[in-house]
Amino acid sequence: MNMDYTKIQISADSDAREVAPFAMAVHELLGLPVTMRSLNKKGVRIEKGKILDDNYTGPVLEQVLKENQIIRTIPTNGRYTGIPVVVAPIRNKEGYGIAAIGIVDVVGTVDLGLVFSDYPEVVNQVQDCLRARMSVP
C-alpha cells in the first residue's frame, strides 16, 4: 500500500496544495464559498467547486490566526467585503491556531422574509429552526 494515500496532515507550514482537500470537503458539504490558509503560508479560495485562488489570504483569516478564536463578521475590506463570513481556527493539540478556515455566508445576505413573503409557512418553519438552534439546552 502506498503510504502517500494514508495520511493528510495540516501544519502551521501547510501550503495551498495541502489545505485544499480540507477546504474542498467543507465547500462540498455546505455549498458555500470557503477560504483556508495555514499560519505561515497562504492558502485557497474555493467557489462553485473550483479553486479560484491558490495564493489566498484575507483579513479575517489573518485576524483569526492572530486571536486564535472564531470570528463572525462582515468584512470591510478584502475579497468578501460586505458579505457575512465565519472563520474558525484549526488548533493543534496544544491549542495553538495553526490554520484558519472560513465560510462566506452568501445566504446570510438574502432577506428570507421578502423572498418567501408569499409562503408564510416556510418562513415560520425557518424561524422555528433558528429558535431551536439558539435556545440553551
Relevant CATH superfamily of the largest domain: PAS domain
Mean pLDDT: 87
Largest sheet: 6 strands, antiparallel
Distance between the termini: 46 Å
- What is the CATH class name of the largest domain? Alpha Beta
Strand residue content: 25-35%
Q: Over all CA atoms, what is the radius of gyration? A: 17 Å
Describe it.
With 137 residues, the chain is of the alpha+beta class. The chain has two domains: 3-104, PAS domain (Beta-Lactamase, 2-Layer Sandwich); 110-137, no CATH class. Helix content is 31%, strand content 26%. The protein contains four helices and six strands; from the N terminus they run αβββαβββαα. A six-stranded antiparallel beta sheet has the order 3-2-1-6-5-4, with helices on both faces. Strand 2 and strand 3 (50-56) form a beta hairpin. The mean pLDDT is 87. This is DUF2111 domain-containing protein. InterPro entries: UCP006557 (IPR012029).
